[in-house]
Batch of 3 targets.
Target 1
Amino acid sequence: MTGGEIVRPRSLRSERLRAAGRSATLIIGLAILIFWVTCALFGSRIAPLNPYADNLLATLAPPSFAHWFGTDQLGRDIFSRVIVGARDILTVAPLATLLGTVLGTALGLFVGYYRGVVDDVVSRVIEAVQALPLVIVALMALAAVGTSNLTVVIVIGFVFTPLIARTVRSAVLIENSLDYVAAAHLRGEGALYIMFVEILPNVLPLLLVEGTVRFGYAIFFVASLSFIGFGIQPPSADWGLAISENYSLIGSYWWTVIFDALATASLVVGVNLAADGIQGVLQA
Amino acid sequence: MTIRFLAKRLPLSLITLWILSVIVFLGGQLLPGDVGRAVLGPLADARAVAHFNHEMGVDRPLIVQYGSWITHFVAGNFGLSYTFRTPVAPFIADALVNSLKLAAMAFVLVVPLGVLGGVWAALRVGSLTDRAITLLGQSLGVVPEFISSIVLILIFGVWLRWLPMSADWPDDSGPLTQIYYLFLPSLPLVLIFFGYIARVARAGTVEALDADYTRTAVLKGLSWSIVLRRHVLRNALLPTITVIASLIGYLAGGLVIIETLFHYRGIGGLIYTAARAKDFPMLEAAVLTVGAIYAIASLGADLLNTFLNPRLRAEEAQ
């Protein structure tokens, strides 16, 4: 290996870092995400009042200086609940994305590398699963196995697996025909070594983009599932759950739903801006 | 040539549907473990559970169950609902009609809006209008339906009081009243789909504007409106058709949320209620129906695409 080849990727990396610094979408997206992650990690210390404490003397109070976002049916402070409400969705969604990415990458590497009958069968199954909206697949599986944070992680992870596998597979098909893979074959490397040590590092940037996009979808699904009662369960202060608990009051007590709705919207938009930004930087 | 295309494409759709039926069947019969226990609850008497399992036929070997389920399904007999102990099929049929009304309403609103927005943006590539339309479509497309629904309900139902907050119209309503009740529930779908349709319409128009045939048409002195109508839009809107078909599949997922939210008795609401009640025959039938509709829609889109695109037709003929 010559010196020039070692220097080139490093300069590419600094080039990308500079592009990242200039990308407004990436910075805004990351700022929103970091804000909510901070709330998720330190929420109970940031929140001005105890988010779980009932106060039956101040139920359904409108926004005021004492309660910035008002109170809910049990007199709990909605501002504090919105802050700690970030925690469960920001635990379940990343874990589900991680599970789907790990399984999907392994599956994609295998079918892309071996091709043949396995590839045909897996591709058909992926196509069949895609004929169903993800919310419906998740709903069916959760109705069958029961809902808990763990089952939501597993079900969303499994639903994501074929989708990520499809992306990885098509990237592996391209890598397969490149010289470095042929060289590894000639050196007598084993299939596992070629898949995970040779090919995997080369599809990592793509995987990063796919992972962040999927993370956006994971947040979308966890929020939607929590709203219909198949996601995060009480007594969590989760936003989707809070909206479903207070939805019947929307006609008179708008503050019980609007702040949770805005929080969810900002998180989803933030993650998608960050995903867009990362994609733009990596493809620059 | 269309027939040859069908002969190639149809078996693929059927295989997809078959795999789907196996997945749906396994999801409904295998995942819950003991179906009777899951339906009747942990406190139910063991004999009641065994009786329920025997009555519903879920104590037979899996492969036998699948065989009888799928043959009945193809014949239009979707089985007995665990909840109502009556045939599932009429429920599915009623729900499907209701969902079609809602979907039609959403598409009637969003397709012209999306196409117009996309073409408008493409004609002003790089301008502020272009970026505003693109960014707006992108952001609206990623916000979950129940969030946009809540905001829309607050604005139009609670504060302005222009539209009813539930889609459950009075029994003897005429078509106009039904449209009035469907307007608000269709808006969240419009918001989600607008970005998708606008993006594809924009990309297609940008490509067609840049094509040699457009340059030739302009250079030979055709008026701009004729160039736009005959040369640009005809080519630009082909990919939009495929996207609209793929949205039909996505639609069913959104309907689960929206129909639940607006108390609407469509296929999405049915799937939700069945999942809540662990009414697996109802759930399986509804989910498989959704899958079948998606398969038909994407087949239809491919057919329409070959039919409308002379280049693809020529390829098929060779």
Note: Chain A touches chain B through 43 residues (CB under 8 Å).
Target 2
Amino acid sequence: MQSFTPQEVEINRSGISLERLDGEVVIISFETGKYFHLNGPGADILYMIDQGIPQAKWEATLGKLFPSFRLEPVEFENFLLEAISERLLIFGSAKTVTDILLPNDYSRSEWTVPRLTVFDDLADLLLVDPIHETGAEGWPIAKND
Amino acid sequence: MRIGIDVSTLVFSKQLTGVERVLTEINRGLTSLLDSQKYEVEPFVTRLDFKKPEQIPDFLKSDPVFNKALRPIDSFDILFFGGINANLPIGELMRLKSERNVKMVALVHDILPITHPEWFMTPKFASGREASISSRVLFQFYLQASLSLADHLILTSQHVKNELMKFRWNQLPTISVLHLGAYKSRPVREVRPRTGINTLYVSTITIRKGHAELLSAFEILWAQGLDISLTLVGNRGWQIDDFISRLTAHDEYGRRLLWRQGLSDLEAIQLYGQSDISFITSEDEGFGLALEEGLANGVKVIARDIPVFQERSFPNLFFFNGGPKKLCEKILEVSTIPYEPLSAGRIRTMADFVADLAHILKAL
């Protein structure tokens, strides 16, 4: 089990770019150059951590939005430890916020395991003009000729 | 002052379309506009394994920046990113910003893969393996990296800026909106006897460009007995198989309905010279350069009534709002309106765009 609570960590704002759009979060690490993606429950968990909501209060918020909400300790610990090891989260002062509203920016349904997807080499994917320089399949599929 | 131009996109380019065309105009313009005694404009790439091709494509052979020797990224005072390149050495660039106060300027052409993901495809790696993210998220990687690094962001329309501001993102640099422009202002009409009305639409054929609606409008006009032709100029894009089938099987195809691909600039200019009206019927654009290109080439332009086109106000520019019937009515109306001769410099050009860009670079 983790030896700390989510309240003891905070977003490493000076070391990353983090933006949320329609329930999807993209993070770019300025230190490693890696890109990260979270969606749905993962994005909401990160939001709760960022706002400093005690973990004990999460069920009240998430349970209302996700009928099948169930945060397995091991899965959550893996999520948290990965975010810490990538220095997306750093240890900081404990916060005392008790309640928040999650952004109403996507349609919530099934609860899924919060997952942090890491991308560390996008060379093949990110050099394509999204409007013209593509094959018949369209962007981001590059032309082969 | 040494200004670095990211040529990573050009290194991989095989043909002069879209972004490449803008980039080469910027390279030419900055080289001639900036005082060479004060400014050196030189190229860099963002990864060591990005190499110039052994065979330089024709359109890059005269590029005054691309053909200089690549310099290391840490040898510049200002870095300009004008292509779509998220292979950015973010750690190194952040260090250059903090330790040497290197300034960075990014040009973002549009954000359509985020605002209209339905027009784009699931990403695949070069190996053919499908990526586990959508094209929308992939594009957000690029956009977010650009916004994080840039001291100054250039957008090509207020519309794109408005869309971007709706995201309510945290890290936004200074933003300037600079409209692109026609490549050359050449309002020269070909004087020759013609019959009927000749029209033109220069655009890659993709689903968002409105070709199907345009063809439907022409079917109404032909049914009414109007002597009018439509020439589509542009390569086949994607998600467009149904329209291509409809186009090539059409009764008028090869007669009053033509499709030309792979035209040279000169051939396109000649076609404009033979035309009365050009169209730009896209459902959305970052800018939509075909609008200025049509006007600069001396035709009346009918554009869809969408925010990005409404930002422009020029003589000979007309808007339609609605489906094929409304478009049909607008074509009939515009065909009777005399062409208004343009004074020199009336249509914004790429030279105007680059001059504005140079001003921003010099002020950093």
Note: Confidence is low (pLDDT under 50) at residues 127-139 of chain A.
Target 3
Amino acid sequence: MSLPRQPVCPQHRDRLVAVAGGEARDRAIDAHVAECTGCRAFLARAQRHVFALAELARASAPRDLDGRVVAATQAGFRQDRAVRALSILTPETMPRDAELVIWQQSAGASGPSAPSALDRLVDSSLRGRGADVGERLSSRLERHRAPAELDLRVSGAYERGRRDRVRAERRLLVVGAAALLMALLVASSLFFVDERTVTAADGTLASGRAGVAPTPTIVIERVASPADLDPLLSGTFAGLVGGATDAVRVTGGKL
Amino acid sequence: MKRLALAFVGAVLALGVVQSCSRSGTSTTASPETTAWTSLTPAKAMELSLVDRMFVAPKNVAHGGVRHLVYDLPTPGGVQRLEYLERVVSDGHGQFSITPVSVVSPAMTNTQRETFELIQKQREGFFFNYRDFGVRDRELFGANYRVVTVPTVTSFLGRDCIELEIRRRDDAATWYLALVDSQTGLVMRCVEYTTAGSVLSRTEFTEFTLEPDLEGVEWHETRYAPETTPLTPASISALGFAPAEPRLLPAGFQHLSSEVVTAEGESWVRRVYGDGVESLFVLHRRRTEPGLLEASSETSSLRMGNASSPVASGAPSTVTVRLCQVGPWTMAEASRGLERIFVVGKVAEAEVVRVLQSTL
């Protein structure tokens, strides 16, 4: 049962798989299998696998799969049709005049030009990143002074906002400190409180952490017979082994 | 929270209930027994996959016959053999019966045999559900086991059978060679081997029929078996203590059922975990002798949910775990105050200790 497994000869592997799959055997492979334990075992295994695969239950496709396949296929057809339709459209030709203008521009021929003032304005706007435009527009606005009440209200609102921000920052600080303290407490309990220790019969110790509360040290005591255990436990075991321990007990013996 | 949970594990219960292992048919919704039974004809069964057939067959395919069982328990003093015959009948609608026929080994006097057979009959529910090889959860079976089909069809007691080699994917201590009725999925013969190659158990039909005579069959009666109720807040409240629950399980195992078992006035919690074939039991019980509770200086009363529970107020610094190993099986019991927690299964010792430790 525990004999070392002989490797299959690499040059015969594919042929053996084919034979296992049902292909006809020939004399050469038969002769080789007869004398090579590795290939013989491989062939047997492959045949088992093929058999196992053949035995697998056939899973039926989901009920809506047919519909999905049809829908996907139809979607594909629709896309194909759209591409075909586009490809056969008659291309619209550009008017001849437009072609001529473009040709002239690209060839450096002078065409209609913008007034130089417009050029300057555009140029300065681009350089000033819009600032010039803003200035030009704002300079035309009529300036008014805000009423004194508005000043007071604005400054009051600003002051209230500042105070709220300070209070929020303080609250955040307190909550953060509390969270930090909690985290420290949990960490310390994990490291210093909940140290489990398992003591094996030979006196060796193994320890680990598994929670927050302290857990007791476990001392293992080996028992030779199930009869020395609690009847509920030994009875359950007896049930698992067909009543074997009961037979021993009934006949006056002990495991 | 953990301190609370920890405190609930505190006391010891002592109770000798041999019949504690039986299982009634009215257990939790998670229990495999609560399946709505629909009798499967062999032709109907063929519509299922082989694994599905194996899963449903024992209770859903009407069958009957005599089985020959051999258990070879490896002990320090040598192998202890139990060999006997039993008659099994299933009506295909969830009713079943297992009745001892005769004991081959060890040799017994008439009185010994009668006692043994009474105990066996008392355990038929447990036997039917947990003793024999079977697919107990299809998904877990698929996830944890690999199956090799031997490419020959074997005729066994007039049935065409497929031979399956079934091993845990992570190479457990044992593996199975099962002869399965290809039509119904019933296991006709099963041999369990250790990885060293020795036989641990062998179960096979010596007589078999798909048309059993149901007249006069003594069906497994739940009213004679320990009463089981699902683990609910109400049943926990009636129980009077917070049931321990492992936070760590062996690789591949998942929770299958949890229930409160009551027999002869005593109640305990039974949690069953499985890997698709093997079962791991976690039992929790509290001793109920009057006076002990009041006398115990370790206990105080706490309330968790609806259950008023006497618990250890100061967690004991040391818990003794008693371990017993028989072949591939490991049993462990832990005592704390009035409570006892047990773990048993075909699982390595370190795993059992870890499971038990995670309940404390």
Note: Residues 1-36, 290-314 of chain B have pLDDT under 50 and may be disordered.
